[in-house]
Amino acid sequence: MTKQIKTVTFADVFGSVDAMVDIDCSNKGLTSLDGCPEKIKGNFNCSGNKLTTLEGGPKKVKGDFNCSSNKLTTLEGGPEEIKGDYDCSDNQLTSLGGCPVFIMGDFSCAGNQLTSLKEEIISNVGTMLAGCPELVEGDFNCSRNQLTTLEGLPKIVGGDLDCSFNQLNTLENSPLIIFGDFSCSGNQLLSLEGGPREVSGNFDCSGNQLATLKGSPKKVNGDFICSCNHLASLKGSPDEVKAFDCSSNMLTSLKRSPEKVKGIFDCSRNQLTALVGVPKKVKGHFNCSGNQLTSIECELKKVGGDFICDENAQHFAEEEVRVAKNVKGNVIA
């Protein structure tokens, strides 16, 4: 016999409330938002309930709207206008249909069952793509879904973009400009072609299946992390980065590595036998441990942090390193 689910509405728990302040109805066992004010002057939090629909909820929210950790399969019936953040993460969404067109804060749809950020809607007017917000002024997080394409993303993201841990094998249809960090780690990417042209923060493409860095931005204002891929060459890497992490690949050479590294340079756990190709100066730590080095002779002359060269084919004494390099920090050999 099917167990009946008890209906618990917003009105049952809260009765009449003041819509001029924040409303927090999270973790109350709600199955319905019936009885909720239509306009909320502050934030509205209905996370951690048993909601399967947003029908009955507010239509305009001047603050943040949080409906995460429910049982939603659609955003239809939800707010049409939100002035703050919109969080619909950790539901059972297969579509973003019903999502507002413009979001002035952050947007998170992480941890759902999305395979696409757009859906095709056929009506008597014609066929159109709908679903994903057209403008997100803050961060956009669509990680931990089942996305195979980035089609539908806004062309410009005002904050960070996190599309990590999906099933992407291409970055085609990425935003052109990302004003924060960009993470596409933990996918199945074979190439960075089609990726964003400009990233103002960090660029993390670690944990993919990249054999080349072709398609990388020429300049990354933050850290560039391409560790745990299948790289045998650094061809295509950015010319200038803050920090550079190419650890845990299959590199036998550091040729074509970035010319300017303002932070750390980590090339540990590769198959390097020489350090030819490294920049002349690294302002942070330099880590070449876990390789097959028999010599540390290279263009690198100055290290602003630690010089880490342990677990190689040959042991390097600290005195030997300091004679060859100007190391401001510790020598870990």
| CATH class wording of the domain at 15-117 and 132-139 and 149-156 | Alpha Beta
Q: Could you give me the name of the CATH homologous superfamily of the domain at 15-117 and 132-139 and 149-156?
A: Ribonuclease Inhibitor
Q: What oligomeric assembly is this protein in? A: single chain
Strand content: 15-25%
Q: Strand pairing plus helix content: what structural class?
A: mainly beta
| CATH-level-2 architecture of the domain at 15-117 and 132-139 and 149-156 | Alpha-Beta Horseshoe
User: Cα distance, first to last residue?
Assistant: 68 Å
The largest β sheet comes out as: 15 strands, parallel
Number of strands: 30
Sequence stretches where pLDDT stays below 50 over 5 or more residues: none
Radius of gyration: 25 Å
> How much helix, percentage-wise, in residues?
under 10%
Question: Judging from the principal axes of the Cα atoms, what is the shape?
Answer: elongated
* CATH fold description of the domain at 15-117 and 132-139 and 149-156: Leucine-rich repeat, LRR (right-handed beta-alpha superhelix)
> How do the strands line up in the largest sheet?
1-3-5-7-9-13-15-17-19-20-22-24-26-28-30
Mean pLDDT: 93
Number of helical elements: 2
Topology:
Layout: H1 10-14, E1 23-24, E2 39-40, E3 44-45, E4 60-61, E5 65-66, E6 81-82, E7 86-87, E8 102-103, E9 107-108, E10 118-123, E11 126-131, E12 135-136, E13 140-141, E14 156-157, E15 161-162, E16 177-178, E17 182-183, E18 198-199, E19 203-204, E20 223-225, E21 240-241, E22 243-245, E23 260-261, E24 265-266, E25 281-282, E26 286-287, E27 302-303, E28 307-308, H2 318-324, E29 326-327, E30 331-332
Parallel strand pairs: 1-3, 2-4, 3-5, 4-6, 5-7, 7-9, 8-12, 9-13, 13-15, 14-16, 15-17, 16-18, 17-19, 19-20, 20-22, 21-23, 22-24, 24-26, 25-27, 26-28, 27-29, 28-30
Antiparallel strand pairs: 10-11
